Every structure is written in C-alpha cells, then in structure tokens.
C-alpha cells in the first residue's frame, strides 16, 4: 500500500512507509555525529561502573586494628617458637618441608586447620607444641603453647605463605 503525501515546505514527498521513516530520521534535530557520540558514551557506562565498583573501598576494606594486632601477635609467637627452624618460611631441618605454599600443598598442610593440627601434634621431624600433645616422643620438650596461640600461629603462617613470606617485623622481644 502506498501513501502519497505532499510536503510543501521544500522537502521531498513521502511516498511509502519506508520513505516516511527515512524522512523522519533526516528531520531529527540531533546530528548523527552527536548521536554516535552519545551511543559510544552509553556503551562505556557498564565497564566504567564495574571498574569503579571493583576499585572502591567497599570491596577492599582496610585491615582492622584487631586483625593487625593478631598478625603482630602471630609474628611474635612465630619468633618465639618457630623461627629457630623456620626462619623466613624456610626449614633448616628438612628442606622439603618449608612453609612456602608449594611445599605446604605438596605435604597436604595448606589450610589453617592442617597447619594448626601439625603445630599442635607435630608431624615427622616437626615436634608438636600443643598442651595436650601426644605421643610424648612427637612433642616438644620446650614450652607448650595454648590452643589460641596455635590458632594465631596457624593463621599467621597461612597468611605469610599466601604472601610469599614477606619481611615481618615484630616489636616484641
């Protein structure tokens, strides 16, 4: 079906529905270049918002004071009980049993729970430090650690292993 319209304002006549739509697009007061720019800017909004959210402080909350204290206490305990054999995450007694992630994974001790268990009860040449450690031959002859102290140590060791054992300073002697 054809429509014949006469436009007297100097524009071409609308002959059918397709040409009418074409005329309507040509009569748009916003230039095509500007329309393209607006579409381009609108296409940038989702990735920019995603980047903004990913980099916002909501996603990366700063370490709380309590967590900082726990890390410091863990470092102090490590310096008292573990550093003799595990300086810098290494192992001077058994080189294949370091506290670096690859060795922890290979030895099946790559979770806080497993690190806790080995620290409490011992394993192989590693003596246990738990108050109720048995058998007696597997446990340290030195000072024993309380359960909460071993939990702090396990958390500290896991955190250090995940970070590749960066230098940690302890303010306690």
> From N to C, what is the helix and strand string?
HHHHHHEEH
C-alpha geometry? elongated
The unreliable regions are: 1-10, 169-173
Range of helix content? 40-55%
Q: Could you report the average pLDDT, rounded to the nearest whole number?
A: 78
Kindly report the spatial arrangement of strands forming the biggest sheet. 1-2
Count of helical regions:
7
Q: Key features?
A:
mainly alpha, 173 residues, 7 helices
Description:
The protein is an all-alpha fold and 173 residues long. Helices cover 50% and strands 2% of the residues. It is built from 7 helices and 2 strands. A two-stranded antiparallel sheet has the order 1-2. β1 (122-123) and β2 form a beta hairpin. The longest helix is centred in the N-terminal third of the chain and has 24 residues, at 32-55.
Give a topology summary:
Layout: H1 17-26, H2 32-55, H3 65-81, H4 83-86, H5 101-106, H6 112-121, E1 122-123, E2 126-127, H7 147-162
Antiparallel strand pairs: 1-2
In a nutshell, what does this entry contain?
By secondary structure, the protein is mostly helical. 50% of the residues lie in helices and 2% in strands.
